[in-house]
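Subject: Ribosomal RNA small subunit methyltransferase B structure
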Amino acid sequence: MKNTYNLRSIAAKAINQVLEQGQSLSTVIPELQQKISDKDKALLQELCFGVMRVLPQLEWFIAQLMAKPLKGKQRIFHYLIMVGMYQLTYTRIPAHASIAETVNGAISLKRPQLKGLINGVLRQFQRQQQKLVEKSNDATHHFHPKWLLTRIQKAYPHNWQHIVNANNQKPPMWLRVNQIHHSANEYLTLLQKANIAAELDEGHPNAIRLLNPCPVNMLPGFDKGWVTIQDRSAQGCAELLIPSDEEKILDLCAAPGGKTTHILEMAPNAKVLAVDIDEQRIKRVEENLQRLNLNAVIKTGDGRFPHKWADGEQFDRILLDAPCSATGVIRRHPDIKWLRRNEDIDQLVILQSEILDAIWPYLKKGGTLVYATCSILPDENNEQIKAFLKRHTDAKLSGTGTHEIPGIQIIPEIEGGDGFFYARLTKQ
Ligand SMILES: C[S@@+](CC[C@H](N)C(=O)[O-])C[C@H]1O[C@@H](n2cnc3c(N)ncnc32)[C@H](O)[C@@H]1O
């Protein structure tokens, strides 16, 4: 049966919502996916994430081919043209189909009179494609916004190219094997039986990397909670926390619960309180706990004001997975590059330090706090913890570095983990 929708126009709508209205792809795409077939869901994802990944290059192509960019109500057609160029440059969809489907997007978007313009730009692009692709490399800041590229270059003068290159790739798919059910080795055998190529990870005991991403419903026992999708670097947080049964553990900034569930897989009888400010996202903690058959107390609350939700309790261990720039996970969320602003970073640094200061009194003497971010920017990471150690003389580093470099900074690696930062502190 023929589809009644035009997928390219849906992709242009999603991109328009991100770039013109500041929404994230992870909110926009699930809504739009409800209207389309399973087969097209993956293509929609590929088109939207792909355009975000190489946006400056597509902007540059358009600037070479069109005297005036489409603005205002016609802006969505600018993005439709990008969707066309992306297909021609980065997918194996035959060129004639890419162009025809993209041009037809103008009908779905109720401006059939623009078909000629879109067709003309895409045909012209096709003729000059090779030359334009070659020339675009110098003009596009490695597909990063200038402010962010400058920050990365300053923080990593020797390996910034390695980082931006990793940011521009599609991310690998990592699994966390639920140790309550299987060891990583046992689960690898189950994957092999299901013809899913994968390999173990040396650094993280429960981590497995799939050689090719696959839908979760193909993973053995996913519904039974045998396995969770989680990057290897994110798995380092609970590993560093070393939770034990019967301990009181606070997982602060917990939603959607990736680390709450990891803590409980490691210590199923720990008394875990999971807190997050976002009422919608916190519902997903509940769903994840249910799938894995684990228990925690869940509360909505602001980490800056624990007196409102902690009931005067103190904790043996606290994991603070702080709100951050997410600059370590750009390959998973390439829209971050265009949603974040340089000014946001200073504000995030203040928010992180406020949460750290507010939560510290709620850690028992002798207790352990792990501070983590999925950022690669020093201000949110090593500099943040250095300043914290100066303000709190009863805080001591515990195995994650020195006073000069108090944490472990992971940078994104093409076949490895996301960019991440962890510091472990104990209270004297
Ligand atoms: C990096 S995400 C957490 C990911 C989560 N720990 C996991 O593993 O699934 C950061 C979280 O911080 C939450 N957040 C932001 N500001 C907060 C605040 N002031 N207090 C508590 N949570 C906050 C966000 O809603 C977001 O869910």
